[in-house]
Write a structure and sequence with these properties.
Blueprint lengths: L2 H19 L1 H27 L4 H61 L7 H4 L3 H4 L3 H41 L1 H10 L6 H40 L4 H11 L5 H17 L1 H30 L4 H15 L1 H5 L1 H18 L13
């Protein structure tokens, strides 16, 4: 290997290491681009309806989004706070009733099988109050651990806030001048491939727009199904819980699980069987969404295969962490376009077999 080749290889390895160390910020930049693309779609719609300059259209769009978010917060947050306060007051009583119900069921099963009452009462399971209270050293250790945990949580929240601020700021800057940033990205490509890169960027933007439409349809379906289920079960805060389920549906796997917690807790305040019914209804809805609604919508919108979706979620979660799980689907959409256009169409389809010399 010659010296220029060795130097090029070293530079390539160094660039790869730098990109690997900056992978979290690169993912945040990709999230900003996705958010900017959504803002650009909204701004373009405003400009088509009301002819105005782009900065004014962006300001009008942001004002409308801020007003909508403010109204939703004013309508939904106070009931959530009231119900959560009531839940904290009644949670021990509800947990005791749920435990008593479980013990009664086990007692009936034991009596039916063995003819004896094999399950103790709650009083027999309970411990003496003196044994529950910790001593001074244990209490001090617990307080110290709690303070350390709070400091770590504050640090994580600060880092998350900085990342969110970066995403929002970058998205706004791109949304103001999208064509200028597009040209900068194209200039980073070799000159002979710039026209083709422009076409590929257009295809990536169309695929991401189709994905956002598909996510909107899937979330709307989850919102309607959860609202109907909670209304039939007589659970309070139907609109708030259904809207929470629709919004958290954007986060794969984790979001649906998080959206189940609060309606189950609210239902537990009325009756334990309602909490179990809510859990069953949400399991049915999420399976319907995961195996019927989303695959059908995504296959129609972006031709995204279910196996590729699952593999992307696992791979990007391992590489990027929780943020990779959140951005797995848009990353998979873009990678599908890049693989199809660059690797398959521009490389493999033009790869000819070399004939041996006679």
């Amino acid at each position: 290997m010659s010296f220029p080749q060795a130097l090029s290889l070293a530079a390539l390895i160094a660039a790869g290491l730098i990109l690997w160390n900056l992978r979290q910020w690169l993912l945040l930049l990709f999230a900003a681009i996705v958010l900017a693309l959504a803002l650009c779609s909204l701004v373009n719609a405003v400009q088509r309806r009301f002819p105005m300059r782009r900065p004014m259209a962006l300001l009008a769009s942001l004002s409308g989004l801020g007003l909508l978010l403010t109204v939703l917060m004013a309508v939904l947050v106070p009931p959530f706070i009231d119900e959560f306060a009531l839940l904290l007051q009644k949670l021990p009583q509800a947990a005791r009733a749920l435990l008593q119900l479980a013990l009664s069921g086990l007692d009936q099963v034991s009596e039916a099988l063995y003819g004896v009452d094999a399950m103790p009462d709650l009083e027999q399971l309970g411990l003496q109050s003196q044994s529950i209270l910790p001593d001074t050293s244990t209490l001090a250790s617990g307080v110290g651990s709690g303070l350390i945990g709070l400091l770590g949580l504050a640090g994580n929240l600060g880092s998350a806030g900085l990342s969110l601020l970066f995403v929002i700021a970058a998205a706004l800057m791109v949304a103001v001048q999208p064509q200028a940033y597009r040209q900068v990205g194209i200039l980073l490509v070799p000159s002979f491939y710039r026209r083709r890169a422009n076409q590929i960027l257009t295809l990536c933007g169309e695929a991401l727009n189709s994905w956002m439409v598909g996510v909107g349809i899937s979330s709307l379906a989850v919102f309607l199904l959860c609202g109907i289920a909670l209304w039939l079960l007589g659970v309070k805060l139907v609109l708030a819980n259904a809207l929470l389920a629709g919004v958290l549906n954007v986060i794969p796997n984790v979001g649906p699980t998080m959206s189940t917690v609060f309606p189950m807790a609210v239902a537990l305040l009325d009756a334990p069987w309602k909490a179990a019914a809510v859990l069953g209804a949400y399991v049915v809805i999420q399976n319907l969404e995961s195996y019927v609604i989303t695959p059908s919508v995504m296959h129609h919108q972006v031709k995204l295969l279910p196996g590729l979706t699952l593999a992307a979620q696992v791979l990007f979660t391992v590489v990027f962490g929780p943020l990779g799980l959140l951005m797995a689907l848009p990353l998979a959409v873009v990678l599908q376009v890049l693989i199809g256009e660059v690797l398959i169409n521009d490389v493999l389809n033009r790869w000819t077999t070399l004939r041996p010399r006679q």
